[in-house]
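Lab meeting, action items carried over

1. Structure of the two-component assembly. Owner: GW. Status: complete.
Input record:
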Amino acid sequence: MNSNRNYRALRTTGGPSQTVPSASARPSSQAAVVRRGELIAKGVTRRFGSVVAVDSVSLTVKAGEIHGLIGPNGSGKTTFLNLLTGYYRVDEGQILVDAEDLTAAPVQRRPHFGIARTFQKPRLLGTLSVLDNAMLGGWEHAQSGFLETALALPRALREDREQRELATELLHGVGLGNILQRQANLLDHAEQRFLEIARGLAVRPSFILLDEPAGGLTEHEIEQLARIVITLRDCGIGVLIVEHHTDFVFRICNRVTTLNLGKMIKHGTPEEVRNDPEVIRVYLGA
Amino acid sequence: MNSNLARLAALVIAVVALATLPFWAHDPYQVHLATLIGSYWVLVAGLNLVVGYTGLLSIGHVGLLAIGSYAFAILAGQHGVNPYLAMLAAGAIGGICGFVLGLPSLRLPGFYFAMATMAFSMIVSEFLLAQDTLTGGGAGTSVPAFTPPFATPNGLFWLVMLIAAIVTWLTWNVARLMWGRAAIALRDSDVAAASVGVPVFSIKLIVYTFSGITAGVAGSLFGSLQSYVTPETFNFELGLFFFICIVIGGRGAIVGPLLGTVVLTALPEVVAPLAKLGQFFYGALLLLVVLLVPEGIGNLFAILREKIRPRRLEKHVVDPDLARLTSAIRSTPVS
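Predicted assembly:
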C-alpha cells in the first residue's frame, strides 16, 4: 500500500554551510533527511518541434548558495526549471544530484532527491486552510500507507502531528503564522507566494527552485522575500531563482546565469554578469 | 472547544437516535427505508473519497454494487457459505473488480474516465443477463438473509448501521490525515501534488480499490435487504444517483454527501402522497441546489452565516520570523 519511499543511504558531499541539526532541535522520530550537495544540469537540451527551447545548458546549484537565472522573455528559463523538476523530458544531456542520475525520474520522484519548487502562478488547494496546504509538502516524509491511515494507527497520527508542528513553525517563519486557518483561496498574492515557499520547505529540500517569486510583489514584500531566501541559503539550502527583477537577483545571488534564446550567454558572479556587454545588449539594456 | 463539544453532543444524540430507531419508528417501512439509506451510504462513503476528494468522475459504481450483491447471493444462497464470510468475500471481489477497472481507466482524463466507468456498469449488466445459469438471467435471483443475531429486519438495520459507522470512521480518518490532503491535491492541482512527491496514479488506484471494497460490502447489504435482485435493479440511474448524492452534498466533506444520500433517498418517499410528482421534486431539488448552493447542501449553514455576518479579512503585512524559520528548517534530523 505504501509507495516507494525507502530512504537509501546516500553519499553526502559537504556543501559550504552543511546544515547540522542544532542542539535545540526538538527530539523527533521523523525520518532523517539526506542532505545533498549539488544539483547539476549537464548539457541539457529540450526541443519543441523545430524550436530549441533550451540549448545545451549546463549549470550547478550548490547547497548553501543562491543561484539566479535571468534572461529575456522566451529565453527558456521556466522551461529549464521544468526540466530540472521533471515536468518536461530532457532530449539531450543529464540531470544529476551529486552522483545520482535523475534524468529519467518522473516529477513525483524529484522531491525524493531533495528538490522542491514553487510556481510562477501559485498552485494552492483553494478549499483547504493555509496550514493544510503547507502540510501537503510533508507527503514525501509520511510513511503511513492507506490502511494505516484509514485505521488511524499510531504512526499515522504521530506523523500527522509532526507535520502539523513543522508546517506551523515554517508558516510562522515566513510570516503567515497569524492566518494558519484561513482558506487558501482568500489569500492575497504575496501570501500565496509565501505559502508556496512554506509548502516547498515542508518537503525538507536540499534545493528549492523559485519560479519568479518576486512577480507581483510590492517593494516591501520583495524585501521580506529577500530576507527569507537569504535565510534559506544560510540554512544550507541551495536556491535557484528564475526572476525578472534583476536588482533583486544581483543583490542576493552568489552566482548568476543568463540565458538568451535557450543558450547560456554568461555565467558568473553578479558583478561579472551585470557588466558583461552581451548581457547588457540582449537583456539589461544600456 | 465549545464547538467541538457541541459537535460531540450532536454525534452522540444522532447515534442514540439511530440505534433506537426501530423502537420509535411508526411502521416497519421506516426501518426499511433507513436500512436502504444505510446500505447506500456504505457505498457512497467509499465513493466520496473517489469523487468528492480525489475528484474522479466515477458514475459506474452501480456495477460494483451489482457484483457485490450477486457475489453475496451466489456464495451465501447457492453455496451455503456463512453470510458474514460471504459479505467479506463480496467486499474482496468488489475491491478486485475496482482494481481491475481502475488499472487501465484511471489513466484517462475526466470525462473519458466517466465513460469508462459507465461502460463497465453496462458490461456488468449484460454479463448478469448472459450468465443465466449462475445469476438467473433476467429473472434474477433471491438473496438470503443474514443469520442471527442480524436475521430480522431490525437486526439487518443494526448490522447496516454498524458497518456504515465503521466505513464512515475509516473514510473520516483518510480524509483528515495526509491521504485526504493528497487526494484533494489530485483534485485541485495535480501539478502541485506531483511537485511535492504525491504518486498520482497509485493514490487514485488505491482509493478506487477501497471504494470497490465498500461497494461490494454495500451490495451484500443492499441485496439482502431487497431479498431479490435482477439486473434491472442495478440500472444506470442508480449509478448516477450515487454520484449525484455526493455532488449535491458537497465535495471535500463527509457530512454533506451523507445529507445528500439521506435527502435524495428519502425525498421520493416523503412526497409519496404525490407519488406522480416524486420525480418532479427530485429534479426540482437538483436544479435548486445546483443553482443556489453549488458548494453543496453540506455547506448551507456556512454559506448562510457568511451571508448574514461576513467575515472581514484584515489585510496584514507579511512579516517573516527568520529565527523561527531557521530553527524550523534545522529541526529536521539529517543523516
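2. GW to write a short summary for the group page. Key points so far: The first helix of chain B runs from residue 2 to 19. Chain B touches chain A through 49 residues (CB under 8 Å).
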